[in-house]
Specification:
Number of helices of chain B: 9
Structural class of chain B: mainly alpha
Strand content of chain A: under 5%
Distance between the termini of chain B: 22 Å
Strand order of the largest sheet of chain A: 1-2
Largest interface: A-B, 86 and 100 residues
Largest sheet of chain B: none
Structural class of chain A: mainly alpha
Distance between the termini of chain A: 55 Å
Oligomer: heterodimer
Number of strands of chain B: 0
Shape of chain B: globular
Chain lengths: 347, 225
């Protein structure tokens, strides 16, 4: 941001830092989040002790509300607030104390924004074109996802960690197997050691981390998915941050909530077995719709469709989870006849 | 500002009404006096602080005050009522979860608006890029068309005063406060420096305020007479 370090008043005279006059000049930029951090701190500190400037801040806020009011005439539909309260009720049952999250966040790296409550699209469907994916492609997606998303060496400050390109031939199962074997090795070498508290947080972070939930990879089209698999990390490296699962969690309640996503077999854990089942399902090209509660767990990007994209996110999440929890993931072996291992009602 | 319906009156306590009221009933005129404005602004900050510490009632109060603002930002981006409502929910939940990370409670409104703009943008990006089956795609296209028509209507209606502003001002206001563009991005589009954009936005807000006053003053005078 390029905000000035010193301001001038309308008559051109210099205005001293921290004076009321200076603060009032800064207020619109302060509210627009266009001030550098140090000046924001100064303005904020001044506002703590100056009622007159707080009143002026209120005036600036009112202007802002007026602007939006006049830019958009549409009014909220009847009942919006009631529905909003209901949704908040659900959310607050899951996360009764945001303070708990704050306390836990403080002990962990900087958080990414949490998940979005995307409108539920039910029943969830397996994209028909994705159903046509062969097992090899699915496995290749896993490989590419793991290679790109494997966290060793990436840090918060290094969001786009360079990855070695993957050749187009990586779309065969052998390559996928090699990649997964490498993952297993890597996890042993980079795992920081078991930490049960962190393990719980990691689970929560899987859902709370926007990069993960929303895709980090965003919702890509089938063609983009194919391109991604073929081009691999070269393309991804330009689009995606390197640290998929950087967020600390939101405590036990969040962790419990998270289990719904990823816990495809309903055993209360999100583990490689779940991903294995998902890949089996994708690779088999199973027709029909699975019960929503089964596929909801697999719809990582929340777009209402289970695609190879979801499995890539799942793979990245598991890889990062393994690093956090210190548990080396089992060597993944693709089994083409492996059904989606969800609950008993699942086809 | 004397007549805006945003934000809503201060909360009364932990027991918020479970029933929904039309926006018009929830809206009240803001206090005229500087002391009241100052008190309200301080109260926003205090509520944000409490909400960040896990006080659900405080958060609900803030949402009641500003849900209309969020809706308008969402509606502009989404183009239809249903998606805009989804975005409002998304923004509210996101804000609740993120409040512990709010560093400056006094800037709560700006923070909330930024969340609304970002989440609305993200929602629309995702909608655009979603993998859909053909019939769903067709449905989406129809919805989009419908949304576009609705948005055109809304713009037509909502832009009355705004349209009186010079193009640059109107665009800058829209890009900044509805689309969430930074000053820098606006500067690139309008070929202006950061400071010129800053100045333009200030002038635009002042101009809009004058237009609002010009429209409202005769009405108030007529009402009084």
């Amino acid at each position: 941001m390029n905000a000035p370090r010193r301001s001038t008043s309308s008559d051109g005279s210099a205005v001293g830092l921290d004076s009321c006059r200076w603060v009032r000049i800064q207020l619109p930029r302060y509210l627009d989040d266009e001030l550098p951090a140090d000046l924001t701190t100064r303005v904020s500190a001044h506002l703590e002790r100056c009622d007159a400037c707080v009143e002026e801040l209120g005036r600036v806020q009112d202007d802002l509300c007026d602007v939006i009011d006049h830019l958009v005439a549409a009014e909220p539909p009847a009942g919006l607030l009631a529905r909003l309260h209901l949704r908040l009720d659900e959310e607050m049952q899951d996360l009764p104390l945001a303070a708990g999250a704050a306390a836990q966040s403080a002990a962990l790296p900087a958080a990414s924004p949490p998940a979005s409550p995307a409108r539920v699209t039910s029943p969830l469907r397996l994209g028909p074109r994705v159903r046509a994916l062969g097992p090899g492609l699915a496995a290749a997606a896993l490989l590419a996802g793991i290679l790109w998303g494997w966290p060793s060496g990436s840090t918060e400050d290094d969001p786009v960690a360079p990855r070695a390109p993957v050749a187009a031939s990586s779309a065969d199962e052998d390559a996928a197997s090699r990649g997964i074997a490498n993952l297993s090795t890597a996890s042993r070498s980079t795992a920081p050691g078991g930490d049960s508290a962190r393990a719980g947080l990691t689970l929560a972070a899987l859902e709370e981390d926007e990069m993960l939930y929303s895709g980090g990879i965003e919702c890509i089209t089938f063609e983009e998915a194919i391109d991604t698999v073929i081009v691999g990390p070269v393309l991804w490296g330009t689009q995606l941050p390197g640290s998929v699962l950087s967020a600390p969690g939101v405590g036990a309640a969040g962790a419990a909530r998270l289990v719904r996503r990823g816990d495809i077999d309903g055993n209360g854990r999100f583990e490689w077995k779940d991903l294995q089942g998902l890949f089996g399902y994708l690779g088999e090209g199973r027709d029909g719709e699975a019960p929503p509660e089964c596929l909801a767990a697999a719809d990582f990007d929340g777009d209402g469709v289970v695609t190879v994209h979801d499995s890539v996110i799942a793979a990245q999440a598991l890889a990062r989870s393994a690093e956090w929890t210190g548990q080396a993931p089992e060597l993944f072996a693709y089994e083409s006849d492996n059904p989606l291992p969800c609950r008993s009602s699942c086809p | 500002m004397s007549s805006t319906s945003l934000p809503l009156p201060p909360p009364s306590g932990d027991d918020l009404p479970a029933v929904d009221l039309p926006a018009a009933e929830l809206s009240v005129e803001l206090p005229e006096g500087a002391a009241e404005r100052e008190a309200r602004t301080r109260e926003d900050a205090a509520l944000a602080l409490r909400a960040g510490a896990g006080d659900a009632a405080a958060f609900r109060t803030l949402i009641e005050r500003y849900h209309r603002l969020i809706y308008k930002i969402a509606r502009r981006k989404a183009g239809n009522e249903a998606d805009a409502e989804d975005i409002v929910q998304d923004v509210s939940l996101h804000a609740w979860r993120s409040l512990p990370k709010l560093r400056d409670p006094q800037a709560f409104l700006g923070w909330l608006m930024a969340i609304a703009q970002n989440r609305a943008n993200r929602f629309c990006d995702r909608r655009r890029r979603k993998v859909v089956v053909l019939d769903e795609a067709r449905h989406t296209l129809e919805e989009r068309e419908r949304g576009r028509a609705e948005r055109a209507d809304a713009d037509e209606e909502g832009g009355e005063l705004v349209r009186r502003l010079p193009d640059e001002m109107r665009l800058a206001l829209t890009w900044k406060y509805l689309d969430g563009c930074s000053y820098e991005e606006i500067g690139e589009r309008l070929d202006m420096s950061f400071h010129q954009v800053d100045y333009l936005l200030r002038r635009a807000k002042a101009a809009l305020r004058r237009e609002v006053e010009r429209v409202e003053r005769p009405a108030e005078e007529g009402h009084a007479g």
